[in-house]
Each structure stands twice: as structure tokens, then as C-alpha cells.
Design brief:
This protein is α/β, with parallel strands linked by helices. Helices cover 35% and strands 19% of the residues. It contains 6 helices and 7 strands, in the order βαβαββααβαββα. Strands 1, 2, 3, 4, 5, 6 and 7 form a 7-stranded mixed beta sheet that branches. Strand 5, helix 5 and strand 6 form a beta-alpha-beta unit. The chain is globular and about 45 Å long. 44% of the residues are buried.
Length: 203
């Protein structure tokens, strides 16, 4: 039976979603892994989102906490808010108390990816503070480390992402993920899919 990997994200302006799509491609390159994209629910009213200039949400399905145990592994993505995960994703995690009580997610691997507005905007603090969510659920945090190779050391251009996971810089919203950032996202998907598959095979 194929290992199930869920890529679950929240995206305001589309940057995190673009990374998620590339992560999905990377994960799908691993044979024997079934990959699915999910969004978490929006918490802001439509009129507020309109004032923010946020585009309409895509047709990627909205996940419910009760659907999480069906997966064998996860990759969670979100933009940063003051160096931490966006409130929309935190609200979703806050709704997983029933799963925490029964430890239904314990032992499942999970990775993180993210978007920040600037170079000092939380490329490391955002995933670092998000790890607490995984710890309380007993999940196994899977960083990418330096497995992306030379791309981790590129200095010729602005590049998001760290050993914690793939990332991008949104700037004022007009900057889109670079080819190097997308390549790192692809790598993360492939890397964590491989680990998810190995863990399922040995379970």
C-alpha cells in the first residue's frame, strides 16, 4: 500500500501555495507515495481580505483535523507573522486537541516550509517556533539539513529557505519564488516523501 503524504498549507498571496505545488511535484517523483495538497481554513472575513489585496483562494480542498490521521506523513507550510506561523495555521493546529489527547499523530514524520516578507522576517524563527506543534503531537520533525547540496550555499542571489525547510521571500508581494527556491522546494518534497515511505515500510 502506498504511503500517504499530505502537504497542508495556508497562503495569503500565493507564495506559500507556489512552494506547496513544487513540493508536491518533488514528492510525486518518489514511487510508492500518494501525495495530496490541502489548505487550512481562512479565518479572515472576505472584506478584510479584499482590503489587503489578497487574491481569491484556489480550489485546493480544505482539510479538517479529523482527516489528519489518514496520512503517514506531513509537510506543513505557512507565511510568517512577526517571526511565527500565521494565525490561520495556528488556529487549525489549535483545533487538533482531540488528536493530541489520543496521540493519533505520534510517530508520523513532518516537515515545514514558509514565506517571509524580508530577510530578517523569520526564515529561521518561523520554523523554529512551529516545531512546538509537532513536539506536542509526538510527530517526528524532518528538517532538510544541507541535503540540497550546493544550493544551500548560494550567495549570488537572494534565496529563502534554511536547513529547517524550503522558503521564499515575498517582499511587498510582487516577488515570486525564484527558480532556486522552487528547486529547494522540489527537493524537500522528494526528501520527505522518501523518509515517509521508509517509515511506513518498516512500521
Amino acid at each position: 500500500m502506498a504511503a500517504k503524504l499530505y502537504i497542508i498549507y495556508y497562503s495569503t498571496y500565493g507564495h506559500v501555495e507556489k512552494l506547496a505545488q513544487e513540493i508536491k511535484k518533488g514528492a510525486e517523483s518518489v514511487e510508492g507515495v500518494e501525495v495530496k495538497l490541502w489548505q487550512v481554513p481562512e479565518t479572515l472575513p472576505e472584506d478584510v481580505l479584499g482590503m489587503m489585496g489578497a487574491p481569491p483562494k484556489s480550489d485546493v480542498p480544505i482539510i479538517k483535523p479529523s482527516e489528519l490521521p489518514d496520512a503517514d506523513g506531513f509537510i506543513f507550510g505557512f507565511p510568517t507573522r512577526f517571526g511565527m506561523m500565521a494565525g490561520q495555521f495556528k488556529s487549525f493546529m489549535d483545533a487538533t486537541g482531540g488528536l493530541w489527547k489520543t496521540q493519533q499523530l505520534a510517530g508520523k514524520p513532518a516537515g515545514l516550509f514558509y514565506s517571509t516578507g524580508s530577510q530578517g522576517g523569520g526564515q529561521e524563527t518561523t520554523p523554529l517556533t512551529a516545531i512546538t506543534q509537532l513536539v506536542h503531537h509526538g510527530m517526528i520533525y524532518v528538517p532538510i539539513g544541507y541535503t540540497f547540496g550546493a544550493g544551500m550555499f548560494a550567495m549570488e542571489q537572494v534565496k529563502g529557505g534554511t536547513p529547517y525547510g524550503a522558503g521564499t521571500y515575498a517582499g511587498d508581494g510582487s516577488r515570486q519564488p525564484s527558480e532556486l527556491e522552487l528547486a529547494q522546494a522540489f527537493h524537500q518534497g522528494m526528501y520527505i516523501a522518501g523518509i515517509t515511505k521508509k517509515l511506513k515500510e518498516t512500521a
